[in-house]
Design goal:
Elements lengths: L1 H23 L2 H13 L3 H7 L3 H11 L3 H24 L6 H6 L7 H16 L8 H17 L4 H20 L2 H13 L4 H22 L15 H29 L6 H19 L8 H8 L5 H21 L6 H15 L5 H15 L12
Amino acid sequence: MSVAAGNKNHLIRLIAVVLTGILAGPVRHGFGTNFTRDSAPGFWLQLWADRSVRCHFYRASRSRPGHAASWAIVAGGAVAGFGWWLLGRYGQRRVSIAAAVANPCAPMPAGTTTIHALLQIVTVALGSPLGREVAPREMGALGAGMVARKLRLLEDETRTLIACGAGAGLAAVYNVPLAGALFSLEVMLLSFSWEKTLAAIMTSAIAAWTATLGLGDESQYHFVSSALPHSFLWWAILAGPILGTGAWLFRKATSAARSRVRSNWQMPVFCLLGFSLLAILSLYFPELPGNGKGPMQLALSDGLPLSMVAVLLVLKMVVILAVLRGGAEGGLLTQGWRWADWSACCSARSGSSASLAVIKAASLWWGRPRFSPPPCRCR
């Protein structure tokens, strides 16, 4: 009887893992690409829809009129300020992914989490400089929690499944199953076992594969392979700690900006001011709005002038801190990559930026060992 019961438990856990991966896969369809392309008009949305953005972003942004896009950015500030203020005032208390993993008995509220994710996608589509990768992680974790409670898993099993769901959402959006599994283990669970590792890999792989059924097997960023001189290793050794320190300072600055947010009348006012600043700057620097996928790809392919890289590095940091101080939510993954990438472009131009990409990304992860979730302000 005990053997049969053990086999039944293993089967239930396997079903939970498979269902979590299947539920996380379509998140990329709704939150990664199609929702923003079909719902938010404007220039920056068109850039997302155009898959050749990585080649033509810079020239296209300089050739399009900016006033319509600026008004869309201001509208995004109004949506962000009033949306999150009303959600905090009238919605259920929001439970972050980290809180759900720490205490599986306190589930993520479906309505609040979904609206919170939709607000992130809508505001990024309207020009917010923040990323959109947090929303799929939250929806993946929400689906995993529902599956765990439906199948009546134990507390530790539920914790593992929620972490795997968050990693699966990341894997689905960026088409990176291994990174999604590592995110689940090293960032969310902070523990290792063969069973947890297998669950993380399976959920991320299934989610990434499910997402490719509708959107194709395409990489988010494209790297150009080239032969590197041996002297590049010395540059990598010297630049790694410097860029890692920059990433650490980036995290400290963004955390400080978020800690000053108040869920009262200040949120719509400061959000509108922050997005208005972004709208004004976008008239002169059209590369600032959006989650930054286009400029990131150009930086990787050595397609941005050095002077423009330096200016964008400073201005992007200013607008990110401004909208975070206002209360807008969103991811900082792409922004952290861009910070490391553009910093490296400013510090060394001896080789192509694509050749430096591995060192930049590695330094970012070294400087950001944990994805610190935004503080819960929904009361």
